[in-house]
Structure formats: structure tokens, C-alpha cells
TrEMBL record, chain B:
Protein name: Isocitrate dehydrogenase [NAD] regulatory subunit 1, mitochondrial isoform X1
Family label: Belongs to the isocitrate and isopropylmalate dehydrogenases family.
Biological source species: Elaeis guineensis var. tenera
NCBIfam families: mito_nad_idh
Domain (Isopropylmalate dehydrogenase-like) ranges: 51-374
Keywords: Magnesium, Manganese, Metal-binding, Mitochondrion, NAD, Oxidoreductase, Transit peptide, Tricarboxylic acid cycle
Gene: LOC105052961
Chain residue ranges for the region called Disordered: 16-35
Residue spans of biased composition, Low complexity class: 16-32
Compartment annotation: Mitochondrion
Classification via Pfam families: Iso_dh (PF00180)
Length: 378, 379
């Protein structure tokens, strides 16, 4: 397959044609199972696809470059249109949005969001402009990477556009600030629908809604109503609800009870980070943001965390999260065989344990991990 | 001391004289092994029994408050309880209960169930707002003999208790669209920051971490951070840093030893406290309380609204450890440090032995068995 796609790739780099596709993201779930189904492509499926690439800030350029190298080594039918965007810009440049609308898929490193007043978060802005209403993080134990918690395989589906992140704040009088949390039936319904559809398509058994409706009765109450309505349409999938503080406690004591979790914006952020932390850290969990027409793939949790100066200088950032997210992207683009090869190689490298970056307890550099992954490709 | 206290107690139960005092902030229970070497020299009259309001509450509440009552009697502690029935489905807390707490200044409480959905507002929240108990404190630490996935945990979460996301101001703008107000004021942020630093100072803590999400909620959490930074300047001996709440959750589960005292607004505090309680052994063992300028209510540290399920109540297998340790905090608050130490030591001995443990700690004991073991371990 490598020999066929290379001339195709060269051919299509001259004229750019884009195939349309809008499938939902798939989980990477359990490590041991290899797909036994042979993928029979339709003619023309191997045509290379254009993907917008935003290196971002901090460790972003380092890890997106890692993905680029691995894609080239695999001769994946994907080519990148790179755009420079930095967290201190006031808005995302118009040509970047144009490019994502055209390509429908984007891969992105983190964009640093300055703390305090002034610039609003570009990560949030991208999600709102393209209406990427579902953020998905898959947190699971990787074999060979010992953690304090076993049997973790949680998918956190988080509403991405409203809730506490509405950005509506004002100072009523000096010293008193009001911040609006907006919950709408429309957004709650579609995130619930996405969560159940995801569970259905990926053979997941249970969906848990996370809320704080004992205190925020109307707001989270509306969210819960929407989830319950959608749950009635999927009788084969178990549905339950859990208050967010109890949820945090259960996550750290018995994480195996959770399967798919659907949450509003803020709780989803915290639950996703906690789940990522118990399963191995934000350096290895893949994730993405998906909407009706577009999808942006990035590091699963803590998208705004672009690492510190030292990591960037020593080039020791962990590329695993973005590599696994790019595998999700390949599956999204309907290249399951490439996605499988990439995932298997990455998991083999982690299981071996020789090339690991600092957050996994090793001392390797980004380049060493990338070389190991490329060597493990079959 | 036991023989002296009993006739005194009897006498004062006949004529009820309540000594007034303005209690200082709560102390930590943390390090298990260190016994206090300082002898407590009381002032004359310090041994006079104190009245404390007792609210058994719902679910496992009556079970665990009964446990505390038994242990207090066994110790002959100079505390007597005025019990009031309050249940989560009442519309408001009865005025005589509030009166009693205002008089006694101290209250011990089991959980009050908060119904989901519209209708009744949370009585736990109502109590805190009425009495202006603006600081909620949970001490999460590893107990010797109780194995957990995380070691070296000793975190105190100080959470703003009256405003933030729990303002209770919600309305439906148009059908299908709801707005919920999160209010942050300089006044409340300042006083919770002051409390946190004062707590750290009085309890020899080295670091205070402010938890926030000011990259997204720039004005609201930005105001909170400003207040924390101002107060931090007045305590140059205490290290201060800030952490975004999502990164904080991740750090809590991977490297909890980096945290010491954490000060947070209302919602984040709830989640961080429960996560920290979970990693250190569960909400069944962590003590905590709510304190304000004049009053204090002691209850199970985290998940105050979680009153257990029907099965635990029927089988009487609720874990009394959290409320026992909280009542030890209460004894220290009432200036009875020797009783507090005895109670804590007995409870920790029982946990270290491991023979009598309830289900959440991996054992199979009932509440009564644990209580009997604690009473037997008292010295």
C-alpha cells in the first residue's frame, strides 16, 4: 500500500481534490484487540486528503512536527496545510478558519491562553466559530505504563460551546463581578444525542450524566432532562446520573464503574483532566472536538497547557497524545488501516518502555520517541 | 479528669450556664504519630461543660451522630448536646435550630439530603448562608494502616462557602434557555484568602495554592486571584502559587504530595475536596467543618449532602470515622485539646489495627462495632 499511495500523493499534490466525509470519532479503547475485518475501500478512497495544521505555542510545534514525521514515514494519504496561530493574537486569522471549513479536519497543538483580562481564549473561539459542540477525551490504561488505577477506560464527552464558558462577565459595581452560566435545551439535547450515538456506535454499555442539579436546579436540571429524554430512545444502553462532587470521588477510588460520561462544559473539563490523570497523564490521552461539519483533533485534556520553557528547550515534550489523536483523525478520514498501524506502533513503544518522556517516568526526548514509533511501524 | 467532670456535668445539666468564648480557627489532625508534648494548663472554669447543638439529619446521619454521642459519654467529655430534628425535605431550617446554634456557637451535624430539581433549596447551603459560615475546611490525609493508591497526602482544602456558583440565582430567560449567575465579590474573596493564610500560619503550613479558572472566567476568577495575591503579600513566610483547576485535578491524582493548603471558590472547592478525600481514603474518614466569624458547624468533611443509601442505613454499616474525627476538631475548637487528642488517637488506633472497618474501607463491620472498638481504645 505504501508504493501505491506515493505516486498518488505526488499526483494529488499538484491538483488538490477533497473528498467529503463526516463520520463520528472512534475510541482507541483496549490495547490487545486487533481488527480482524479487512477494510475494503471504494475506488478513489486512497486519494490524499488535505488537513489544516496549526502548530500553536510552546510544545505545539514540537509535537505537531512529530506527527508530520510519522505520517510521512507511513506514507499516509494526508498532507498538511500549515498556519501559524499564537495564543496572544486577538482572534484566529480568517484564512485559518477558511482553510478548516474547506478541509473539514484540523490537527492542532495547544494555544496558550493568557490569564486575566484582555485576550479571550483562541481555543474556545475556534470551537464556537466552527460550532464544535462535542469535546471527546478517551482515557484508558496503556499496557506497560503502570498507574495507580487499573481497568480505566472512560470516554468523557463534554459540551463545548455554552455553560460556564459563555464568556459573559461584567463588574456590577467595583468589587462585585457576575459571571453568567447559560444552559440551553438545544445544546444539551445535541450533546446528549452525540453521547448516546457514540456509545451505540462503539458498543459501549453505559452513559453517565454528570451534574450538580441539587444546587443549580434549573440549569443542570435542564441538562438532565435532555439527557433523560435521549436515554429513552436507546433502551439498550444503561443510563445513570451522578453528582459531580461524588463523581470526582468515585473517579479516584473506583474508576472502573465509568464508561461514557456526558457533562456540561466546566465539569467536563475537570472530569476529563482527572480521568486523564488517573490513567497515565495528559501527555498520552487522545481527544478531539467535533461538530456537525468539522473536526479539530488535539491533545485530549488540558489543551491550553503548552508545557513550560524547559520542556521546549530540551525538546522533551510527550508526542504520544497527539500521535494517538492523529490516529483518531485518520480513522475520521476513513483510513482505518493507517490508523491501526499508527496506534499499534505507539502502543508497542510504550509497552517496551525504553523511550519515554519525563512525564511517563523516562528521560527520552521527543525525537527519540518519534524514531522509536517509526521503527515500530509495520 | 473523668471523675471530676461527671459531677460537674450533672450539676450543669440542672442549671444551664453556657460559657461564652470566641473560638480560634480549626487545627489540623494531620500527622498521625506525633503526640503533643505540651501539657495543657487550663484556666479555672475551663472544664465547665459546653452545650453543642446536634442535628442528626437524614439517612446515615442519626447513625453516625449516635456514634459520636456514645463516644463522648464514654470519654466523659464536658460537652452535652441539644438535639433538633431537621430533615432535608423541610422548606427552611426551623428558627429554633438557628437560635440554638447562635446561642451555643457550635453545632455537630449529620448530612441533610437535598432533593434534585426544582422546589426545596439545599438546607446545608441555607444554614451556611444564614450563619455566614464562609469557610469550609476539609482535611484530607493518609491514615496509617489504611492503604490507598496515593501516599504522602496531607491536603487542607479551604473553600469559599457562601457565593460563587452556589448563589442560587437562576432563571429561565425563554423556554429552553436558562441562565445561572455566578457572583464573585471582593469582600468574600478577601476574607476567605485571609482565613486560608491565617490557617496556614497558625498550623505551620508551608504553602497556599489558589485554584481558579481565570483564563476563561477572567473577571470573576480574576477578582478572586487578585484578592489572594494581596493577602499573600502580608505573609512572606508562606509560599503562594496558583493553579488552573483542570490542571489541578490532574496533579491531584498524579502527584498529590505537592499540595499543602488549597484555597478555592465555591464550586471548585467542592470538587477538589471530594477528589482529595477520595485519593486519601474516601469521604467516610475525612473530617471537616464550616466556620464563620461567630459560629461553627462540624460535619463529615466532603460530600455533606451524601447521606448514604437505604441499604447502609438498614444494615447499620455507615462509617462513623469522619464524624468522630470532626467531633475531635470540635473539641479542639471548644478548647478541650486533651479530649480531642484522646479521641483522635483512639480512632487512628482502630483504623491502624484494621479489625473493625466498615465496607467503604474494605471491611465488613457495622457502625456499632467500630464505636465499641474506639471506646475500648480510649485511654
Amino acid at each position: 500500500m505504501a508504493r501505491r499511495s506515493l505516486p498518488l500523493l505526488r499526483h494529488l499534490l499538484h491538483d488538490s481534490t477533497v473528498a467529503a466525509a463526516a463520520p463520528p470519532p472512534q475510541p482507541l479503547g483496549l490495547a490487545g484487540s486487533r481488527r480482524s475485518v479487512t477494510y475494503m475501500p471504494r475506488p478513489g478512497d486512497g486519494a490524499p486528503r488535505a488537513v489544516t495544521l496549526i502548530p500553536g505555542d510552546g510544545i505545539g510545534p514540537l509535537v505537531t512536527d512529530a506527527v508530520r514525521q510519522v505520517m510521512e514515514a507511513m506514507h499516509a494519504p494526508v498532507y498538511f496545510e500549515t498556519y501559524e496561530v499564537h495564543g496572544d493574537m486577538s482572534t484566529v486569522p480568517a484564512e485559518v478558519i477558511e482553510s478548516i471549513r474547506r478541509n473539514k479536519v484540523c490537527l492542532k497543538g495547544g494555544l496558550a491562553t493568557p490569564v486575566g483580562g484582555g485576550v479571550s481564549s483562541l481555543n474556545v473561539q475556534l470551537r464556537k466559530e466552527l460550532d464544535l459542540y462535542a469535546s471527546l477525551v478517551n482515557c484508558f490504561n496503556l499496557p506497560g505504563l503502570p498507574t495507580r488505577h487499573e481497568n480505566v477506560d472512560i470516554v468523557v464527552i463534554r459540551e463545548n460551546t455554552e455553560g460556564e464558558y459563555s464568556g459573559l462577565e461584567h463588574e456590577v459595581v467595583p468589587g462585585v463581578v457576575e459571571s453568567l452560566k447559560v444552559i440551553t435545551k438545544f445544546c444539551s439535547e445535541r450533546i446528549a444525542k452525540y453521547a448516546f450515538e457514540y456509545a451505540y456506535l462503539n458498543n459501549r454499555k453505559k452513559v453517565t450524566a454528570v451534574h450538580k442539579a441539587n444546587i443549580m436546579k434549573l440549569a443542570d436540571g435542564l441538562f438532565l432532562e435532555s439527557c433523560r429524554e435521549v436515554a429513552t430512545k436507546y433502551p439498550g444502553i444503561k443510563y445513570n446520573e451522578i453528582i459531580v462532587d461524588n463523581c470526582c470521588m468515585q473517579l479516584v477510588s473506583k474508576p472502573e464503574q465509568f464508561d461514557v460520561m456526558v457533562t456540561p462544559n466546566l465539569y467536563g473539563n475537570l472530569v476529563a483532566n482527572t480521568a486523564a490523570g488517573i490513567a497515565g497523564g495528559t501527555g498520552v490521552m487522545p481527544g478531539g472536538n467535533v461538530g456537525q461539519d468539522h473536526a479539530i483533533f488535539e491533545q485530549g485534556a488540558s489543551a491550553g497547557n503548552v508545557g513550560n520553557e524547559k520542556l521546549v528547550e530540551q525538546k522533551k515534550a510527550n508526542p504520544v497524545a497527539l500521535l494517538l489523536s492523529s490516529a483518531m483523525m485518520l480513522r475520521h478520514l476513513q483510513f482505518p488501516s493507517f490508523a491501526d498501524r499508527l496506534e499499534t506502533a505507539v502502543k508497542r513503544v510504550i509497552a517496551e518502555g525504553r523511550y519515554r518522556t519525563k512525564d511517563l517516568g523516562g528521560n527520552g526526548t521527543t525525537q527519540e520517541v518519534v524514531d522509536a514509533v517509526i521503527a515500530n511501524l509495520d
